[in-house]
Amino acid sequence: MREAAFVKQNKEKWIAFEKAITLKSQLNPDTLAEHYIHLTNDLAFAQSYYPDSKTLLYLNSLTTQAHQQIYKNKKEQKNRIVSFWKTEFPLFFAGYQKELIYALLFFCVAIAIGVLSMLFDDTFVRAILGDSYVNQTMDNIDSGNPTAIYDSGGEFGTFIAITVNNIRVAIMAFAFGVLAGIGTVYILFLNGVMVGAFFTMFYNSGVFWEASKNIMLHGTIELSVIVVAGCAGLVMGKGILFPKTFSRRVSFMKAAKDGLKIVVSTIPFFIIAGFIEGFITRYNTMPIWLALTIIMASFGLIIYYYFWYPIQLKKQYGARES
Question: pTM of the prediction?
Fold first, then answer.
């Protein structure tokens, strides 16, 4: 992009922000922060493409003034962690609902492929999960306890192992986004096909309901946040493919930072899912109403935190700004 076009595209935004700083207008903190982020992104772009220009000098000066205005009387927040989970992340994530929907669609299509593959060839699951795991599961089905595999191992050890493994999968789903998002789609596809084939195996054996109500105790959160981690990878991939007015390097760095923040948000949920799998799923004789309560509560928590709450928070802050 030529410098003149860059200036023409952004000058009204810069002038408005400069007036707000000079006149010390009482901007909403989130509006101020958003303008400052845009300004620093423009500065980085100018540093890359117009290193000796007056535009760069102007943006340097404006950024310095903005930094002083924002931070000169900044007080350290006492509840920074609470603020992140309660307001900062949900408000930030409201801007990535589209990527979340895409990740969910990729995952659901993969599940459907896994289901159809098993319906037409019931040996397909062996290629996905391996003979040893399938044979053990079939033995458990024959013995009348299709999810007995979750009874093995100590409770705490299972909790730690499952949590670490799930976080590893989430990091892979995010990190593979560096391959322009294709790697993330592959991870979502692989896990989705595995899930579809796994559940259809129980369906073909006539124990779908009994197995599902136990597996989804932990699976509701576990599978949901794998999709969220896939969203993080798609965010990074999008930053590489569509840099907009930024250099590809700057766009990638920003997208990677945003994706990492999304992955971090999944860690508490993976801990919850690991705890349920380690300490609760093994009790497969629990009343149906209790199992359904845990599943619905888990599903409600995911829908609330990643869909409903971010949208409502965005509307609330948008109303304040207007």
Answer: 0.77
